[in-house]
Structure formats: structure tokens, C-alpha cells
Amino acid sequence: MRNKETVKIDGYTQFCLTAIVILMTLLIIGLWANLHWMDLTPTAGVAQAADGQYLQGIPNAGAQRLAILKAIQTTNNKLDKIITMLNSGQIKVVIVKPQKDEKQENAEKQ
């Protein structure tokens, strides 16, 4: 024999359950229809750069690598000029011993 149990639901609980069912139904319909009116976050839209231009998809990695290689070539050219000047004698590097202060000498003695 089965015992029948009845559950009483008060008005507040019924209101909350009804609201949850309605919201879940709207969510399912929105996901199924792919509606954009349900976007609640400001980042969900199209990405926009600081200057107001719209960003287009994935960045061009090839163009970035070419820009990096160009910058490296510029740096190498500048280093070559410095090395040429050092080898020609136009620039001389002289290393001298630093002079000791009296404070340093006193600190070393203690």
C-alpha cells in the first residue's frame, strides 16, 4: 500500500518557483534563438579600440612578426654604427678607478 502525502506550498514559494520557471524559459528561448537583446554585459558587444576604430577578429601575427623583425634590423644597424665608430677610434672608452670617499674609508675601517 502506498501512503499519499500532500505537500502544501505557500504563496511566496509558489511565486518564487513561477518566477524561476519564467526566467529559465526566457533564457532557453534566448539561447535557442541566439538573440542579442539578452546581452547584459558591456563587454559582450563588438570590441573597440581606444581611438574608436573597431577591431577586426584575430590580430595578424605575420604582420606583427614583420614589424618586430624590422625593429630588430633597425637596432642592429645602430649597433653596427656604434661598433664602427669604436673601431675607427672616434670614440674612446677609458676606465678609471673610482675615487674613495672619506666616509667609505671610515666605514671600511670599522
In words, what does this structure look like?
This protein is mainly alpha-helical and 110 residues long. Among the domains are: 8-40; 62-95. Helices cover 54% and strands 0% of the residues. The chain is elongated. The model has no long low-confidence stretch (mean pLDDT 79).
Counted beta strands: 0
Q: Biggest sheet: strands, sense, closure?
A: none
If helices are DSSP runs of H or I spanning 4 or more residues, what is the number of helices?
3
Order of helices and strands: HHH
Radius of gyration (Å): 37 Å
Helical content band: 40-55%
Oligomer: single chain
Helix/strand/pairing class, anyone? mainly alpha
Q: How much of the sequence is in beta strands? A: under 5%
| Overall geometric form | elongated
Low-confidence segments, ≥5 residues, pLDDT <50? none
Distance between the ends: 99 Å
Mean pLDDT: 79
Give the tags:
elongated; mainly alpha; 110 residues
Summary, kept brief:
Helix content is 54%, strand content 0%.
What's the arrangement of secondary structure elements?
Elements: H1 11-33, H2 61-88, H3 102-109
